Amino acid sequence: MTVMKKQGSLLLILAGLVLAGLVIAAVPSLRDRVVYHLDQWRVKAYYALFPPEEAVFQPGGTPDSTVTAVPVVNTLTPTIVSQPTAELLVVTPTVVVPTPTALPQSYIITDVKWQNQQGIDRWNYCAPANLYMALNYWGWSGTVYDVGDTMKPFQDDKNVMPYEMGDFILENTDYGAVIRYGGTLETIKNFIANGFPVLIEKGTYILETTTNRMGWMGHYNFVNGYDDGRGVFIIQDSLLGADYEIAYDVIEKEWRAFGNTFMLVYPPEREGEVFALLGDYADVSNSYQMSAQVAADETATLTGVDRFFAWFNRGSALVRLQDYNGAATAYDEAFRLYAELPDEERPWRMMWYQTGPYFAYFYTGRYQDVVDLADLTISAANQPYLEESWYWRGRAKAALGDLTGAQADICQSLEYHPGFPPAIEVSRNLGIFCP
Q1: Residues 186 and 112 in one domain
Q2: Mean pLDDT computed over every residue of the chain
Q3: Phi, psi of 202 (to 5 degrees)
Q4: What percent of the chain has pLDDT over 70?
Q5: What pLDDT shows up at residue 64?
Q6: % of the chain residues with pLDDT over 90
Q7: What pLDDT shows up at residue 2?
Q8: By CB distance 3.0 to 4.6 Å, which of 135, 188, 320, 350 could disulfide with 140?
């Protein structure tokens, strides 16, 4: 009798579990929450077994000269994926440069609307939230979803690049945009004091829910004020809150991780004013040279993770100048320094946000280095929604003669970013069909 009671109780429990499962499956909000938490547990377990900070890329450094590359791939123009129209805009001769005046000690641009990247039903909405704030300030009538649905057609995409933000503006709005590198704190202040909020990309350490450790990741900030007396910028931080204050030395350190990248959004009738305020940054080639020199200077003066960033920035600046040999050498040194950093300081997500090493190694014939770096980046991500890494690995595999592997990777890139222009171009050149 006792056995029968136990069996009956077990059947009741199983029936209850089945019923609960059916209820969860029938209610989308419950299903989504359960799936989300199960996925979080899975990621935590994976990172506990395979700490991403421990994975280190070691460049081979040797061109794959013995391999017969697939000609159709290597005839593709080495277009820099991170170089959109927004970046290539140049100053027009008719611009009148205003007489420089002393900046006020403090200045705040009001009437900005803060957008939370978390309080919405979308994942990782940092870039859409920040771009929405920039557009909304100038009177754009769209929503944060209008931005995100276009820039992130695959909603779990790990990152949105600055060039994707610039392209969204130029292709979907009536506003102008310009992207530059190697900015300074004075650059930000100058634009703010003249009524132009500034978007910047930086790196920061936060407590991660997936690893329960402090970890590094990229983050956008919408900067709309500064105060020299207190030594702070006022930002609309989509993660930390509205009117968030950050010290000059902190933002300078965090901004370095992305080569001091900044973006301006502006009404078309104020384009001349923007380029006048850009000064030496107006000429895009000159801005690349300036950022390369700043990085070179910092490689000699900085230490630790900051020196790693300096060498990485040097490589990225040389990629933009299409000096791929110099860039590859700089990246080799950056990765050597990365391996020497303590695990907890390693910015292991670096290749989620900046893909310059792929350019440098590919265009110096180091295809296996491209494959190895992409392998590490994809495997460390666990949720490998990184269309750029799949794309570059596919190109490198094709150059090494592995057309089957190339097709799989290019198609995976297009799955994680439908319509991704570089992947579409390569698929057409290789005759790849993705189901």
Answers
A1: yes
A2: 84
A3: -145, 175
A4: 77
A5: 82
A6: 64
A7: 53
A8: 135
Is 215 within the bounds of a domain? yes
> CATH no. for residue 127?
3.90.70.10
Contact by Cβ (8 Å): 400, 371: yes
Domain coverage including residue 252: 85-282
Three-state helix/strand/coil letters over 318-361: HHHCCCHHHHHHHHHHHHHHHHHCCHHHCCCCHHHHCCHHHHHH
Q: What angle do CA 264, 200, 413 make, to 5 degrees?
A: 95
Query: Which residues, 6+ apart, have CB-to-CB distance to 167 below 8 Å?
Result: 84, 85, 86
Residue 239, CA distances (Å) to 46, 119, 135, 139, 346 in order: 25, 10, 18, 23, 22
Is residue 293 one of the residues assigned to a domain? Answer: no
Same domain, 143 and 273: yes
Using the predicted structure, report yes or no on whether residue 326 has a pLDDT greater than 80.
yes
Structure token digits, residue 48: 């506990």
Is the pLDDT at 268 greater than 70? The verdict is yes
pLDDT over threshold 70, residue 165: yes
pLDDT of 30: 54
Block residue for tokens 């132009």:
196
Q: How many whole angstroms separate alpha carbon 252 and alpha carbon 260?
A: 8
Total domains present in the chain: 3
In a domain, 319, yes or no: no
